[in-house]
Design a protein that fits this description.
single chain; 360 residues; alpha/beta; Rossmann fold; SH3 type barrels; 3 domains; four-stranded parallel β-sheet; 13 strands; 16% strand; binds N-carbamoyl-L-aspartate
């Protein structure tokens, strides 16, 4: 086992009771934000965004400013030493020596865990490639808790790019921890959920169906989580063009949905939700973005308070000669990284990107 700081790489590294504590704290902040306006005075947050972002980066920055702290960082690696060829390890080592907490977004799966291995302060995953996005999941959980009042006993539809949508992966993993949730996976066959996430559903005995038609699926849903087709994660423009516009939620589809449906979307939206839906009281995505700021305030406070037990960063062991089979894994870009895997026998799980690899 390797431990270091109170990082947040994958929400499932922590028990549900820890998530609940954050949701409760966020609720308290919403009811009296001024009480927390000096809570992080003198503290510095570093935001290292190697990939574009509006909501995640700005909600983290606003969260820290509303707590009385200050921020440093970059949102364009081309203007930092990354452009000179600096590796992830060195950049993180330096910034984590300046800041009290580092928030990182990166285009490669497993990158934030890799960075956390050598960081001198807590590191928060703000999205690592098509892998995970735990703080969006905290945002989604807070929205559902506040708007629906519970996180169990729901039929949740996920629609769009389930293959590349990291917010989908993280939220499904989280919702399997609450009782009696059913999952309806709505996508084209090409953009279906990765096997390792389906394995999480199967292993827990959760009911899930895979369908291609949103029109017929919408009637049973309590929650509909729409996502955009993730153009930047396709291998070619032609592949993207084939999938573009596959699903569009409009008022005619909403007419068949339950009266208390909650429509979520991590945003940004491209064309998958028609603008006309914005005025439907069941459209919760703009409110959801605001909840994101409050849950990030709760997270920053918790991490900086540093009184909780950190999750283990690495639970497996090093396999020097084994390569991860996922070409999009950070271990293929940062050659110095130790090859950590979980499990034993013929199949190993990469500690960075969670993909399965057959032993050579
Ligand atoms: C999401 C992301 O970056 O994964 N956006 C966000 O953080 N709110 C979803 C997306 O980009 O489609």
């Amino acid at each position: 086992m390797i431990y270091n700081n109170l990082n947040l790489i994958d929400l499932n590294d922590y028990p549900v009771s820890w998530w609940e504590k954050l949701l409760t704290l966020a609720h308290e902040i919403i009811s009296d934000p001024s009480k927390y306006s000096k809570a992080c005075e003198g503290k510095i947050m570093g935001t290292l965004f190697y990939e574009p972002s509006t909501r995640t980066q700005m909600s983290f920055q606003t969260a820290m400013l509303r707590l009385g702290g200050t921020i440093i960082g970059f949102d364009n690696p081309a203007t930092s030493s990354v452009a000179k060829g600096e590796n992830l390890k060195d950049t993180t080592k330096i910034v984590s020596g300046y800041a009290d907490v580092v928030v990182m977004r990166h285009p490669t799966a497993g990158s934030v865990k890799a960075a956390a291995l050598t960081a001198d302060c807590p590191v928060i995953n703000a999205g690592d490639g098509g892998h995970l996005h735990p703080t969006q999941t905290l945002t989604d959980l807070l929205t559902l808790k506040e708007e629906k009042g519970h996180l169990d006993n729901m039929t949740i539809g996920f629609c769009g790019d389930l293959k590349n949508g990291r917010t989908v992966h993280s939220l499904i993993k989280a919702m399997t921890c609450y009782k009696n949730n059913k999952f309806v996976l709505i996508s084209t066959p090409e953009l279906c959920l990765p096997t390792y996430i389906k394995d999480v559903l199967s292993a827990g005995g959760h009911t899930f169906t895979e369908v291609t038609d949103l029109d017929s699926a919408i009637t049973d849903l309590d929650v509909l989580y729409m996502t955009r087709i993730q153009r930047e994660r396709f291998s070619s423009a032609e592949e993207y063009e084939k999938q573009k516009g596959s699903y569009i939620l409009d008022c005619s589809k909403m007419a068949h949905a339950k009266g208390d449906l909650v429509v979520l979307h991590p945003l940004p939206r491209v064309d998958e939700i028609a603008i006309e839906v914005d005025d439907d009281p069941r459209a919760m995505y703009f409110k959801q973005a605001k909840y994101g700021m409050y849950i990030r305030m709760a997270l920053i406070l918790t991490v900086l308070k540093n009184s909780d037990k950190p999750a283990a960063l690495i639970t497996g062991s090093e396999h020097i000669h084994q390569q991860c089979s996922n070409p999009k894994c950070i271990t293929h870009q940062e050659a110095y990284l130790p090859h950590y895997f979980r499990g034993e026998g013929t199949t190993l799980e990469c500690e960075y990107c969670d993909e399965r690899t057959l032993v050579k």
